[in-house]
Amino acid sequence: MNNLLHWRLMLAVAELGTLSRAAEQCGITQSGASQAIAQMEAGLGVPLFVREVRTMTLTAVGQQVLEKARRMLAEWQDIRLLAQQAAGIQPAQLLLASFPSVYSEKLQHFVRHFRHQYPAIEVVNLTGTDVEARQWLEQGQVDLAVLMNAPVTAPGLLLGADQWVAVLASQHPLANRSSQLPLSLAELAAMPFIVATGGCDLHSEALFQALGQPLQQVVMRVQEWSTAYALLRQNRGVSVVPASTLPADQSGLRVFPLATACQRTFVLQCSSHSSQTIATQRFLDSLQAWLSNGV
């Protein structure tokens, strides 16, 4: 009647309390999640959830179905584990080094999918800076690492690219110009500037330095993107950030392209000692298929 994703979605909604968060965790759209839950309820002939303005809670029968669904999914994982061991995939652990923003944006949903696909292979995410991830990989302390602006060498994979953009307050003197008109690095470097790192060593200050335009008035250095955007809304300065970190709600902000186009790329690379292991090969093959499908 329903596929495994539907049952996992039901568990996620019950645990998280909202359809939007559950859909994000399962790697599907909110509308797709809503349709899936509706299909489950139609197939069973009973409502599983009570829908409120911002939350969803289980009905009495939904709670009973949930307990059976948990046992069913656990049994299915045991079946997959048994089949994989029979096929020669032994229990293994992969250490994956990444930095927070890239893991949440590029890998989190896939890792959850991979764990369901290969329960015998445990993926452990180690969070660090981009420099730490590179060091851990070179020293053989991790099996896989996300590297920034690194060449793509087999069997590594390009996860994506990210454009740098300028951001300033809507009441800033430059805010009245067309958002299609780029801002130069020289004029930005001369303004009061907020440096946001996002836990990476390759941040806007390092970017300006590398391009021969060192920042002249750094007013604050912060790690969290949300903190940087709060300061920008208060017109404490301007900043240059990766486009993927822009908030969904951009009220109070203006975003402009840079006159000198700049981007950062993310590459998943494996260590020399793990490149030939079955676990690593399964992970990379599965990720390649995931990326090819545009998930």
TrEMBL record:
It holds the Pfam family LysR_substrate. Residues 1-59 form the HTH lysR-type domain. InterPro entries: LysR_HTH_N, LysR_subst-bd, WH-like_DNA-bd_sf, WH_DNA-bd_sf. Keywords: DNA-binding, Transcription, Transcription regulation. The keyword Nucleotide-binding does not apply. Belongs to the LysR transcriptional regulatory family. This is LysR family transcriptional regulator. It comes from Proteobacteria bacterium 228.
